[in-house]
Amino acid sequence: MYTNDLYDSGYSARVKKIRQNQLSALYENADKYDIEKPSIQKTKLDNLFIESSNTRTVRDDSITRFRSFSETVRNCLVVEALYKMYSNAMDPVLKADQTNRSIMRKIVTEYVNENGYNIILANMRKASVPMCEMYNVINNSINSILEDCDQTNPDTFVIKNEDKDQFFNDLDCTNTEDVEEAISDRVSNAMADFINTNNKDHEEITNTLKNAQEKIDTVTSADDGEDNDEEDNTTPDGNVQESYQGLARARINKIRTTPKGVFHSMVSALSESVLKHEDMHNEFMTEGHLDMDKIVDRTRIMYTFMEMLNTSRLDRVDEAFISEAIMNLSK
């Protein structure tokens, strides 16, 4: 049978060679005809790919930085709003001290960082009308600040002074005065209860010791007045004296361990912590003794923040919350 395989094979080879010669001639005159050689085309494509990748990397980095800036803005505005309400409810004498203001800001910042601004905003929105107003101010400020940013230009990731001014002006227009006044009143009541309870306990302890000593003196005087002979030479009954002293100690222990208010428990916990930690001695001890004025002031700062969360309904300040706070003080 006749076949044309060899013919076809030879023909294909000749065609392929002719095309190669034509391409070679064409590329030799590439400059004349403004045609790019394959190597040049590949280089340009590689450069285009690199340039595209770099652009994409820069854009992705900018978007990442914008997201970080957005988180910072939200966190910052929540801290500032809570700190403002906290400061307004704080005792004027305490907040006049720069150290106390720094402590207050640290307390607020740590609370926001630990709980998350998103959770706080969600609680704020449904807590009460004044807190909802505060939420709206924060949310509007966030939107205003971020809308002015170009996500591809990190130089625009700033909070402008006019945005800050507008934010604080809007906060001043919220109806939080009643909440702040209620916080202040409750803290003052807790302070008054602490002082009254302390004075009452001190008076009871003093009377208990005095009564015990009077009874011991009575027994001693009775023994001294008796006629004793050599066969019955008695002395003051030591057992009776120890008994009166034991009853006094039991009474004093009962007074001291009787459940007190939260403020009192916080003062006690902080006092114990100061005694256990030498690094706290310089701040809270004077000449080897507890400086109760400083301890009470620090307690009042922390208690006011807890009362703010409670009164504003931003958080559930229940027994577990209070126990944890007291435990942290005693560490």
Structure description:
With 331 residues, this protein is mainly alpha-helical. It has two domains: 59-175, no CATH class; 179-221 and 236-330, no CATH class. It has helices at residues 5-28, 30-33, 38-89, 92-95, 98-115, 117-127, 129-147, 161-172, 177-225, 238-257, 262-276, 281-284, 292-312, 319-330, and strands at residues 285-286, 289-290.
Mean pLDDT: 82
Q: Tally the beta strands.
A: 2
Strand content: under 5%
Radius of gyration, CA atoms, in whole angstroms:
41 Å
- Biggest beta sheet attributes: 2 strands, antiparallel
Work out the count of structural domains: 2
Which strands sit side by side, in order, in the main sheet?
1-2
How large is the count of helical segments? 14
* Helix-strand string: HHHHHHHHHHHHEEHH
Write the layout of secondary structure elements.
Layout: H1 5-28, H2 30-33, H3 38-89, H4 92-95, H5 98-115, H6 117-127, H7 129-147, H8 161-172, H9 177-225, H10 238-257, H11 262-276, H12 281-284, E1 285-286, E2 289-290, H13 292-312, H14 319-330
